[in-house]
Amino acid sequence: MKVEQIYTGCLAQGAYYIESDGEAAIIDPLREVNTYLNKARKDGATIKYIFETHFHADFVSGHLELSQKTQAPIIYGPNANPAFESIIATDGQTFQLGRIKIKVLHTPGHTMESSCYLLFDEQGKEYCIFTGDTLFIGDVGRPDLAQKSDLTVEDLAGYLYDSLREKIMPLPNHLIVYPAHGAGSACGKNMSKETYDTLGNQKQVNYALQQQTKKAFINAVTDGLTPPPYYFPKNVQLNKAGSASLEAVMQTGMQPLSPAAFEAAANETGAVIIDTRQPEYFKDAFVPNSINIGLKGDFAPWVGTLITDINQPILFLANDGTEQEVITRLSRVGYDNIIGYLKGGIEAWQAAGKETDNIVSISAEQFAEEYKKGNTLVKDVRKATEFETGFVAGAMNVPLAYISENMAEFSKDQTNYIHCAGGYRSMIASSILKSRGFDNVINVEGGIGAIRQFLPMANTVATN
Predict the structure, then answer these.
(1) CA–CA separation, 264 vs 397, rounded Å?
(2) Phi and psi of 216, rounded to 5°?
């Protein structure tokens, strides 16, 4: 028996490859299915089943393409209603895979079709459980994502409490818990950076499993929930109805465009221009009105959070050799309308005599010197929970995820000093502000981590 977690850091997502006696199963596959096909080929195994724990909101699954290439059926738990042929399992139904078995445990709450998959080893012993978005390491799935209007968040949280108490908590402590996500995913609020654990340890340390009453559980898991990213509902629809193959998206997106063609495409289509270079390179010269979302970071989730129309035409700049990676990551969250990239990058743009823009970026030490002079307008674009742990006195918290709704919080007259935790998000924010006509923007390199070395932190918001 082989159980392999295939973890994708930029999505904080875990897919699973299981093999026994020449038969394989995939749980929650990503859109790029060759990873699973290659593993099965290497093992001399046939992919027999494709299990989905629920209709994912945070990424587009590869279930349909994988099924088409392997003829393996797609399996969901009860209540699922996909638009394509699949097996809708009953609660408790088991599937034989080589010399092991996988049992369906229907665990509604995160969504009403959410199900976990309990694996029994060759000796018939409970070995591990694939919990999807029902149970994470340190957290449980947020109960506000199900696309069903007659159920409240509290209703779903109540279902989740029952599912955990009746289906998961009675299982043996030695079970390995394999969730669908870890820290960084928007599908929970308190996830650990660890990607698996024993159920026994989670019973001891997971705050949600400590709640002794349904009312306490509902209060605990619904407290502090922030609105989900805009792309979540669209991804649910794509996963229910099906989407184009990654190969098709790659074919249209891998169009190298000359500076003239790139500029014409931007003007004709109204495409958003995403510059995927690192902030330290972007700041010095970029195509006017482009947005910097660095590939070396939480690229896809930030695209999905900040570009609210999933069908928005996209043009992009990338370091040579990373173009396919950019398209792959965009497609993971359903941004398929990619019409090309700038061949030769910013160097080709400059060589063609095209205008560039830049963002003033200063060190934390320089920022501290300016701050000490007084009357400095500081905008902190970290999450509210991060801000509360310590901030520059007088700073205003404008989380990056909600920057478009809060443009009025930035000054058109006074210099806006923008910072985050380390510099990735502040450059995104600065580039958005630049594209909206704010020319008085200064990015603080290194974020709060660097600023702490030169300024004391406050932790109480001043009130009038």
Answers:
(1) 38
(2) -65, -40
Helix/strand/coil percent split, the chain, to 5:
35, 20, 45
Q: Tell me which residue of 279, 295, 293, 289 sits closest to 445, measured CA to CA.
A: 279
Q: Pick left, alpha or beta for residue 340 (phi over 0 → left; psi -120 to 50 → alpha; otherwise beta).
A: left
The domain spans of the chain are 2-234, 245-351, 360-451
Q: In whole angstroms, how far apart are CA 325 and each of 10, 44, 164, 254? A: 12, 28, 38, 11
Pairing of strands 416-419, 396-397: unpaired
Task: Outline where DSSP puts E strands in 107-158.
Answer: 115-120, 126-132
Of the candidates 324, 337, 58, 334, the residue with the CA atom closest to the CA atom of residue 187:
58
**Calpha distance 191→173 (Å, rounded):** 20
pLDDT score for 408: 96
Q: Which residues of the chain have pLDDT under 70?
A: 147-149, 460-464
Residues 296-320: pLDDT tens digits? Answer: 989 999 999 999 999 999 999 999 9
**Options 3.40.250.10, 3.40.190.10, 3.40.50.1820, 3.30.1490.20; which CATH number does 245-351 get?**
3.40.250.10
Residue in this structure with the two tokens 């969504």, named with its chain if needed: 111
CA dist 151 and 396 (Å) reads 36
pLDDT, one tens digit per residue, over 247-300 is 999 999 999 999 999 999 999 999 999 999 999 999 999 999 999 999 998 999
* pTM listed for this prediction: 0.91
The CATH class for the domain spanning 2-234 reads: alpha beta
